């Protein structure tokens, strides 16, 4: 039984994140820990500084709302009871959300969050960079669940030949073996069209025992366009990414357009970094 932490706000229930957990529990039992955090960190940073937020989490600036907390906690308990999901509840920490989430992530297998916890329609290019810096502080894989998503029926694993992309692959099949039976497309993109898939034989030797419906594909052209295009060809995919940073696969999402594209297609994103 895996332990999943779901981060949530006091004033709203993360319906999509909970649905993802519920679907996983229906395939293999999970232990859920609900970790309450303060207002969306991007919105908080903007309100306090008056400037586009840099990749730092601020300590909570508003007191906890006991009524909102009680209502959301009650709804969580009812939903978990209805689906037979064992749950623990951890209240909001007074020491700042990133410290709380870092510690929670140290003692769990997977963190599941709604995209609204990090992203807001008011912000543009800084969103992904802020999120990437936050995820680098965490110590477990993260699934970001967009509004209106459909549970994954295909896996798209981005590979660039780096250790971090192989690490993400291993984390994905280790933490979410329930998805291993899905058709799985391991896609390699590189600006140099003449470059072959790095370490192809070793990659296939590692991945094929875990994914019976595995396809390894070299994508032509610009990696960002190619990977997003491959995602768009599937009806209900999940995208798997490795290291977040200027040299990792997440560089294809350094501008809001790319991530918005995933949101529009309602694609969950699994991220694991070394």
Describe the structure.
Helix 6 (163-175) links the parallel strand 6 (154-159) and strand 7 (184-189). This protein is elongated. It is built from 9 helices and 10 strands. It is 37% helix and 20% strand. It starts with a strand and ends with a strand. The chain has helices at 15-27, 41-49, 66-83, 97-106, 126-136, 163-175, 200-207, 223-232, 256-264, and strands at 2-9, 30-37, 87-90, 110-114, 142-145, 154-159, 184-189, 214-219, 237-241, 269-271. A 10-stranded mixed sheet has the order 3-2-1-4-5-10-9-6-7-8, sandwiched between helices. It has 2 domains: 2-145, Rossmann fold (3-Layer(aba) Sandwich); 154-271, Rossmann fold.
Task: Explain the layout of strands and helices.
Blueprint: E1 2-9, H1 15-27, E2 30-37, H2 41-49, H3 66-83, E3 87-90, H4 97-106, E4 110-114, H5 126-136, E5 142-145, E6 154-159, H6 163-175, E7 184-189, H7 200-207, E8 214-219, H8 223-232, E9 237-241, H9 256-264, E10 269-271
Parallel strand pairs: 1-2, 1-4, 2-3, 4-5, 6-7, 6-9, 7-8, 9-10
Antiparallel strand pairs: 5-10
Give a short synopsis of this structure.
With 274 residues, the protein is α/β, with parallel strands linked by helices. It has nine helices and ten strands.
Radius of gyration from CA coordinates: 18 Å
**Distinct helical segment count:** 9
- Could you tell me the number of beta strands? 10
Fraction of residues in helices?
25-40%
Question: Averaging pLDDT over every residue, what do you get?
Answer: 82
By secondary-structure content and strand pairing, the structural class works out as: alpha/beta
Distance between the termini: 23 Å
- CATH architectural category of the largest domain: 3-Layer(aba) Sandwich
Query: Can you tell me the CATH topology of the largest domain?
Result: Rossmann fold
Query: Spans of 5+ residues with little confidence (pLDDT < 50)?
Result: 41-61, 121-125
User: SSE order, as H and E?
Assistant: EHEHHEHEHEEHEHEHEHE
Major β-sheet annotation: 10 strands, mixed
CATH superfamily of the largest domain, called what?
HUPs
Biggest sheet strand order reads 3-2-1-4-5-10-9-6-7-8
Work out the count of structural domains.
2
CATH class of the largest domain: Alpha Beta
Instruction: Report strand %.
Output: 15-25%
Structural shape: elongated
């Amino acid at each position: 039984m895996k332990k999943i932490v779901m981060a949530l706000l006091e004033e709203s229930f993360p319906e999509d994140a909970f649905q993802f957990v519920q679907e996983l529990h229906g395939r293999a039992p999970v232990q859920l820990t609900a970790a309450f955090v303060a207002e969306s960190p991007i919105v908080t940073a903007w309100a306090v500084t008056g400037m586009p937020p840099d990749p730092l989490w601020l300590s909570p600036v508003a007191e906890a709302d006991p009524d909102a907390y009680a209502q959301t906690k009650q709804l969580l308990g009812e939903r978990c009871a209805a689906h037979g999901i064992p749950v623990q509840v951890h209240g909001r920490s007074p020491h700042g959300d990133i410290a709380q989430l870092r510690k929670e992530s140290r003692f769990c297998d997977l963190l599941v969050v709604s995209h609204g916890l990090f992203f807001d329609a008011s912000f543009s290019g800084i969103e992904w960079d802020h999120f990437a810096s936050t995820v680098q502080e965490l110590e477990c894989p993260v699934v970001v669940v967009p509004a209106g998503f459909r549970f994954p029926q295909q896996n798209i694993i981005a590979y660039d030949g780096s250790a971090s992309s192989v690490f993400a692959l291993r984390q994905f099949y280790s933490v979410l073996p329930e998805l291993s039976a899905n058709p799985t497309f391991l896609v390699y993109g590189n600006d140099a069209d003449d470059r072959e898939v790095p370490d192809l034989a070793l990659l296939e030797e590692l991945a094929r025992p875990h994914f019976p419906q595995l396809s390894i594909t070299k994508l032509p052209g610009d990696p960002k366009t190619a990977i997003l295009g491959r995602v768009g060809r599937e009806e209900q995919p999940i995208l798997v990414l490795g290291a977040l940073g200027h040299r990792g696969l997440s560089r294809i999402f350094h501008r809001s357009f790319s991530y918005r594209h995933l949101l529009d297609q309602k694609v969950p994103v699994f991220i694991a970094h070394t």
